[in-house]
Amino acid sequence: MAEQQKTIMAIGGHVGDAELTSGGVLATLSLKGWKVVTLALTGGERGNPPHLTVAEYRKQKEQEAAAFAQMMGGEAVILPYADGELPDTQEVRFEVCDQIRKYKPKVLLTHWKNSIHKDHEATYRIVKDAQFFAGLPSFERELPAHYAGGPYYAQNWEDPTEFVPYAYVEVSEEGFALWQKAIQTQWFAIHSPSFHYAEYYSHLMKCNGYLARKPYAEAFAVDENQKTIQISEF
């Protein structure tokens, strides 16, 4: 019997968040046969460039999300909420729960709890509760329960307060090369006049690689109750 394909789901407050902060790991795992799913809770459209309206940039961002995921052999999902207006509600938690149950990821990646962006902070809370709902069999939805591991919180220059790396995950040289090509699909990552996103995360992967003794790596934090080490013997 063939082994079932493993899935990883990276959840961002905006299109582009997961692609930048977790993209190296996503690319590396995709090359190992994992299914990659990116889930953006808003479009991230209010960072629109001067030549595009907010509505036009929303459409472009949706196309960018799909293009990035396609290069990973995966899928992109975008919820219909507006950038900066992500509702911190049960309804959104249920929607994310349904996506977790649909795709059955082995692990979730998302935002750290402290951020300069309100959508990022809301995403942290939403994902935590959605993970709980998704894994609870007595919580009846259209699809059966599925428990996803994590969440692991991606290192992000916009989510720095009290972020302490706990896990360094290898990004292979092939994965890094794939990510470098795929991130070109994200307009703001290459052309933003306010921050050199693609360059920053490229160098960050290299610096984390030094710490992990790997060519490249991405760093993730975990909640305090996840910081357990099991030792059977020394």
Provide structural commentary:
It is a single chain. With 234 residues, this protein is α/β, with parallel strands linked by helices. It has one domain: Rossmann fold, CATH 3.40.50.10320. 41% of the residues lie in helices and 18% in strands. The chain is built from 8 helices and 7 strands; from the N terminus they run E-H-H-E-H-E-H-E-H-E-E-H-H-H-E. A 7-stranded mixed sheet has the order 3-2-1-4-5-7-6, sandwiched between helices. Strand 2, helix 3 and strand 3 form a beta-alpha-beta unit. The longest helix has 18 residues. The protein is globular. The termini are far apart. The mean pLDDT is 96.
Query: SS-based structural class?
Result: alpha/beta
Encode the helix/strand succession as letters: EHHEHEHEHEEHHHE
* Largest sheet: number of strands, sense, barrel closure: 7 strands, mixed
Q: In total, how many domains does the architecture comprise?
A: 1
CATH superfamily: LmbE-like
Which stretches are low in confidence, meaning pLDDT under 50 for 5 or more residues running?
none
- The number of helical runs is 8
Whole-number average pLDDT? 96
Amino-to-carboxy terminus distance: 37 Å
Provide the CATH topology. Rossmann fold
CATH class label:
Alpha Beta
β-sheet strand percentage: 15-25%
Q: Give the overall form.
A: globular
Number of strands: 7
The Rg value, from CA coordinates, equals 17 Å
Which bin fits the share of residues in helices? Answer: 40-55%
